[in-house]
């Protein structure tokens, strides 16, 4: 962008932000689950499993070759991993994929993904299925994604537990799980230039700056930008050292469905001016 048409403004504030609300799909700083793809090692720790739980290596995996398989035989089978969510957690989310093979489409064969305290008591049910929710057998198998908000459990040690209960009258339903992950963001991940008063200073004629605004905020009293509400602004400030033409380029990576808003605002001329 040419700035020659606004060279009367010596000082600029740079602002960039996503326009839409936060998406968990964009979440990602710290991974808390170990061996979430069940490739190796498998049990005790990080996973704790009851007898009969298997980790096959065949075409039933989502990726790359192994997966967790519950059910098959009559009785309760479970596998869980204990994680500690930091006290300064801003947001945390559980993700996993499931696939169900039920020869008899048995409604009596049950599966639950649950969150438990370390003493085994129930905190929340993430998802419940039966053999009626079976998938057609095919290669590669059909896996379904599940996402669950773990933010309310900040500061706690919790179990991520997958539990199957195949009934004696069922048909040996297999509940398969793969690619389990827990992503957490903490206060340490908040961009330092989230607030206007903490904007990052850019010096000289040339500079390259990087930043992520996944957990940036719109601060109290922050106006709309170019008529748009915005929501996740970051701030830089730069004073043109010379009265020559300057150029600004920006690259961004955004999750699908998000819009990007970028522009300049001058505060030296006593009024806001916006360009996209
Ligand atoms: Ca796997
Ligand atoms: Ca902000």
Description:
- The protein has no helices and 14 strands.
- It is mainly β.
- It folds into two domains: 6-23 and 212-275, no CATH class; 30-187, Jelly Rolls.
- The strands form three sheets. Strands 2, 4, 6, 9 and 11 form a five-stranded antiparallel beta sheet that branches. It has a five-stranded antiparallel beta sheet with strand order 3-5-10-7-8, with no helix packed on it.
- Strand 7 and strand 8 form a beta hairpin.
- It is elongated.
- 28% of the residues are buried.
- Mean pLDDT is 81; it is low at 1-12, 17-28, 254-258 and 267-276.
- One calcium ion is lined by residues 37-39, 61-63, 66-67, 178.
CATH C-level label of the largest domain: Mainly Beta
As a percent range, the share of strand residues is 35-45%
Count of all domains: 2
State the shape: elongated
- Low-confidence segments, given as residue ranges, are 1-12, 17-28, 254-258, 267-276
Query: How many strand segments?
Result: 14
Radius of gyration: 25 Å
Helix/strand structural class: mainly beta
What's the rounded overall pLDDT mean?
81
Which CATH architecture of the largest domain would you pick? Sandwich
Taking the alpha carbons of the first and last residues, their distance comes to 9 Å
Give the secondary structure arrangement, pairings included.
Layout: E1 11-18, E2 30-31, E3 48-49, E4 68-71, E5 75-84, E6 89-101, E7 110-117, E8 122-130, E9 144-149, E10 157-166, E11 174-186, E12 200-202, E13 232-239, E14 260-265
Parallel strand pairs: 12-13
Antiparallel strand pairs: 1-13, 1-14, 2-11, 3-5, 4-11, 5-10, 6-9, 6-11, 7-8, 7-10
The site of one calcium ion has 7 residues, from loops.
